[in-house]
Amino acid sequence: MRWGVLQFPGSCDERDALHACSLLGQARLVWHEERDLAGIDAIVVPGGFSYGDYLRAGAIARFSPAMEAVAEFAAAGGPVLGICNGFQVLCEAGLLPGALLLNESRRFTCRQLDLVPDPGVDGPKSEAEVLNSAHRPTLSIPAKHGEGRYWAPDEVLDALEANGQVAYRYARGQNPNGSARDIAGVRNEAGNVVGLMPHPEHAVDPLSGSTDGLKVFEAVAAAGAPA
Amino acid sequence: MAAVRARVLIRPKEGILDPQGKAVEGALPALGFEGIGHVRVGRMVELEAEDPERLGELCEKLLANPLIEDYEIERLDGAG
Predict the structure, then answer these.
(1) In order of start, what are the domains of chain B with their CATH numbers?
(2) How many domains would you assign to chain A?
(3) A86 touches B: beta carbon within 8 Å
(4) Is 0.90 exceeded by the ipTM?
(5) Which of A102, A150, A156, A175 to mutate to test binding with chain B, by most B CBs within 10 Å of its CB?
(6) Residues of A with a known catalytic role
(7) Which of A61, A208, B28, B29 counts the most CB atoms within 10 A of its CB?
(8) What is the least distance, in Å, from the CA of B6 to any CA of chain A?
(9) Do B65 and A99 touch (CB under 8 A)?
(10) CA-to-CA distance for B33 and B29, rounded, in angstroms?
(11) What's the predicted TM-score (pTM) here?
């Protein structure tokens, strides 16, 4: 598996994402001005503050040449994982439904929490298998963000749940930002584009207390057909 | 061609929790301002446009996120 990790001015988690991907295959950074994704099997849009997050988080990054290439890659079925700011970028780009708003508490949140993976009602079988192989029913992964409150109109939320597009929920009582229906991450209708606020790339080494983050990368890799 | 000055007002949609507005509202009584409610905090963008007809498209694509925000375009007279 060859991973490409996007890098915008203002990204700050691309190195950890690169490290996580390198544990599962080969990985390289993709500078935001690059358009050529040839030879890449899966894309990670990492966390940080792309272009300073001016205007709205992710609003400007979506117009970068690299993101135009990612949109084509996703349309062709290629697996794409957006983390934190990357999730915000994917929502702004229209590759995922909904939006991320200022935390209900108005405070930046930074804590280890438990995520409940949801392989979806008719979720991709391979992904379900990956998730079922987990030793624990929940994933211990850190979250750190100021604008992570997932929001979409009620009818959209109903459709997401009916279609199995809720990818991750915060474990009961651990919703750190006021997200609708405890949603921590969603996937697109085809299942190959996934975004979440917590940071699986910070949970890949026993040194940091959990290696559950790798399961998120593995699930995304299994969900998409390499483009 | 003279550019037209315009002002774009962007605010969170009705019904969406606005924590900034809540924070401002919560601070007001302590400062002696009573009887002020429903505070919503948005932002204003001032710009000059050579083709003001495209401002709507600009708002839809970049200045606002139509899913969560409403916007108003105000063209200012005496442009130059």
Answers:
(1) 4-75 (3.30.1280.10)
(2) 1
(3) no
(4) no
(5) A102
(6) 84, 199, 201
(7) A61
(8) 17
(9) yes
(10) 5
(11) 0.90
